[in-house]
Design brief:
Glycerol-3-phosphate (1)-acyltransferase, seven-stranded mixed β-sheet, alpha/beta, 34% helix
Length: 232
């Protein structure tokens, strides 16, 4: 089955280049704090989600190739082989998708970048309702989390194409400081982007709930700072 094929790092790099061309060709991304993304080793990018453009926008502005967990409903028709080909991960949100979980952990164990919309679905993009999946991946892998705020993608005034922000409009992508899901957790990654043995944090339900609260506080704080910084 194609669902068991591991995500390709080369494919994700192709996706990044496509994203660069599309995002900078159609809009005017302003990227702030990209240097905060670790240059190597596993990392989880936690992105607010207010618009369908948020994923492609991040793929085109992140300094490293990103493997996103994307709802299975997006994998239809020709988009299915395309999304798989650029290293994206299909996830069934209606159940515990063990294939997606395994593939996501594989991305991190190989020192890659995993992109997650922790709110699960598009909403206000304010991190108000977080799911436990982000905490699970961060605690299980020990990978640091980098919060990302995409601002301006939901702009409606001046649209020529329904569902997309005005062409050539500015979209701000703000990367925050990397942090650990659990306070006091220590990274177990090898240097140089090598394979990670696994996280050192506790994985009990209570520990994951506590990590989710900590993560939400950090993400909400970053979003507030990003809005002050950009004036949005």
């Amino acid at each position: 089955m194609t669902a068991s094929v591991p995500p390709s790092e080369k494919g994700a790099e192709v996706g990044r280049r496509i994203g660069v061309g599309l995002m900078y060709g159609l809009w005017k991304p302003r990227v702030l704090g990209a240097w905060r993304v670790p240059a190597s080793g596993p990392v989880v990018l936690a992105v607010n989600h207010a618009h369908n453009l948020d994923g492609p926008m991040l793929m085109g502005t992140a300094p490293r190739p990103v493997h996103f967990l994307i709802k299975k409903e997006a994998f239809v028709g020709p988009l299915d082989p395309f999304l798989r080909g650029i290293g994206q991960l299909k996830v069934d949100r209606s159940s515990t998708d063990r294939t997606a979980i395994t593939q996501a952990l594989d991305v991190l164990s190989e020192g890659g970048v995993l992109g997650i919309f922790p709110e699960g679905t598009r909403g206000e993009g304010d991190f108000a309702s977080l799911r436990a999946g982000l905490a699970y991946f961060a605690v299980r892998s020990g990978a640091p989390i980098v919060p990302v705020a995409v601002l301006g993608s939901g702009e409606r005034q001046g649209r020529l194409i329904r569902g997309l922000p005005p062409l050539k409009s500015r979209v701000d992508v703000v990367f925050g400081e990397a942090f650990e899901a659990q306070e006091g957790a220590r990274s177990s990654a090898k240097g140089g982007g090598g394979r990670r043995v696994g996280g050192s944090g506790r994985r009990t339900r209570k520990a994951l709930d506590e990590a989710t609260v900590r993560i939400q506080e950090r993400l909400t704080g970053h979003l507030e700072n990003a809005r002050r910084l950009t004036g949005r």
